[in-house]
Amino acid sequence: MDNFIVPNSNYTIKEWNDSNQIKYNQAYQELQTSELIQDESKRFSNEIHISTIKTHLDVNKKIEQRIDEIQFWKSELDSQFLETENEIQNLLKYQKRTEAFLKMTEVPLEISKQCIKNREKRISIDLVYDDVEVQLLKEVEIIEIMRVKLTKTIAQVVEKIRLLRSSNYYIGKDIADKFSALKIDNYCYTINSDSLPLQDKTSKNISMPVTPEVWEYFSDKNLRKAQQEYALSLSLRSKVDEMLHNAFECLQNQSELVNLALSKRIDETELAKKKFQENLSKVLVEIDKMDDNINEIQCAVEENDAPLQVAQIRLDERACRPNIELCLDRVERKLREEVNEIKNNVIHLQSMMLESKMSLKCLLSQKLTLEESIAIKENTLFIDRDQNLLLRKQIVYEEK
Fold it and tell me: What pTM was estimated for this model as a whole?
């Protein structure tokens, strides 16, 4: 008995059975839990699959809508970009037209000033402030005013071109961005789980995204700005057309007024010259007649010398009659009458000669005056007809 070994038992049969039962129960519970989890997982997986497909389709629809929105705004921007670009080209043509018109006024302005300068060389009474002078000064004033307006208009056109180009610059950038966005969204639309691309996981855009309202406002603002500049450009071109037309008519009309006044003045000067020449011809004829008249009077005076001497000698001889024979008879009286008559006639002839010589002097003076007047008119005609009228034929206005 001393050698009997007592077993080392820590658990009872009941404990053993309980332990086993617990483990059976735990295993069963885990199996139940596993089945539940598996069922739930399958259900959830199906739900996720369906949800993922639905979300994917919804995203694709949203991408389609976004593509439509971008294409709409890009189409609007493309259309406005082309309109603005065409308007820029139109304005460039208007700039050239206006610059050409401005260039066209250089020669008329120079000619008008030269005509005024030439007319300063008129002399004496012909240096008159006439209608030609008035119209020439007015023409210079009009041309200079038009040149100022044309210069300002060119500056306005250049500035409008700059503003249109600025608008198109921002529209162009917007179009480029939308083109890139379309390319990206179209590519995103084609991506699916069967064709996953290799990509860099790092974000390429660190900017904060904007709201759709801000995005739409940005393009709308660019579009409205370009449309506003486009409308203002159309208005400016209309004003330029009107201004160029009015300028052409104004300059053309004033040029015609100057030419009309100049032609009228030339006719008046030629008529005055003709009258002076006619008067000069008459004066020259009268001078010749007066010379002849003076010569005739001189001859008449000389013709009376001999009869006067005869009568005087007779009186002298008869004064030598002696004594009572020195009688105042009829012969004596007649001889005395003859002497007095001849002397009176000579005195009258001499008076007429003096008067004739004074008249001849006046005629000669008038001849010089007429010749001077003709020379003055010839100088004026040379200036107005031979210089200014020929110069003004170079003035040609063309409606631009």
Answer: 0.76
